[in-house]
Model the fold of this input.
Amino acid sequence: MFVKGLECTACGLEHDSSRLQNLCRSCGKPLFAIVDLAAASRTMTRESLPGRERSLWRYREVLPLPSDVEPVSLGEGGTPLLRASRACRTDDVDLWIKDESLNPTQSFKARGMSVAVSMAKHLGAKKLAVPSAGNAAAALAAYAARAGIEAHIFMPRDTPRANVVECRETGAHVTLIDGLITDCGAEIARRKESEAWFDMSTLKEPYRVEGKKTLGYELAEQLNWELPGVVLYPAGGGTGLIGMWKAFDEMETLGWIGKKRPRMFAVQAAGCAPIVRAFEAGEKSAVEFPNAHTIASGLRVPKAIGDFLMLKIIRDSNGGAIAVEDEEMIRVTREVGAKEGLFVCPEGAACFVALKLLRSARKIASGERVVIFNTGSGIKYLETYDRG
Done:
């Protein structure tokens, strides 16, 4: 096991990684796993990777699960990085699409839940609970079933129907709430002690981000260890964006990449854009976004616990944050589908809209290599697209 311990992302307080942990016991902020990279580098090298399994577990030495413990896996990770067709490129931008819809449960949430459920099972959890706008719920339901652990899922009542059905059919206990994902989280917080649930909320446990950081490792490996100039990422809770940044730092320490980083852009919906507002106002954290609404359910996160981490990353990288209208997501989904053969989710479509807006504003230059993350399949959102 190459994890040395857990460390608070805000105050730096160290925590024990040998037992179940949620947030920092001092300041209530997210915890990060600290990897012994010197030890990991003795067996995991860039040259050793091609001979390993094509899943996120190829990076086993920088993941928290002890090497002698079998992971809870459905074959997650190893998703394609596709060069966009000429028809989909904008003003000669070198555009690539990281297609996470090919993960188990058809979204990037499988990465985080595989690692988090593996660790929860290893550390003795018997019941897991999560608030979700859809895809995280489906992932937890699947991986908890695989692990033989109870899953208790709370979703807004207007969550895309496919996710609700998927959770029920994979054995989870599903509760629909009149409200937003924050209301679902509040219900779990109220009941988790009496129900003996371990809270698997975004960044409220330390290991979903470890699974998501493999996005960064894969991106670097697929681009032959030369990071792109720009990353466009749909940010609700922001775990993927935060995880990739952690991965970039780890890979630099390993000697796999240099100091150069992509400019990271957080893409949000106009109806729920707390990070955009905070970024434009120069704030270090984001206030809760009032009356949050968007068809992109994964972006309907009015208050993210990792807001301060996202804002620091996009500023440190000289990136930014941009909001996109729902109508444009729908229109561009069909455009991307016709040009690329990909039925992207609304969150992924938002990044294609953002690319055009950023090019028009001259914030992305002609010739730059840009990677868009399509975080899930449009199949999960049929009622959103079925408008005649």
Notes: The two ends are 53 Å apart (CA to CA). The chain has a mean pLDDT of 95. The longest helix spans residues 239-254. The domain at 81-106+209-385 is CATH 3.40.50.1100 (Rossmann fold).
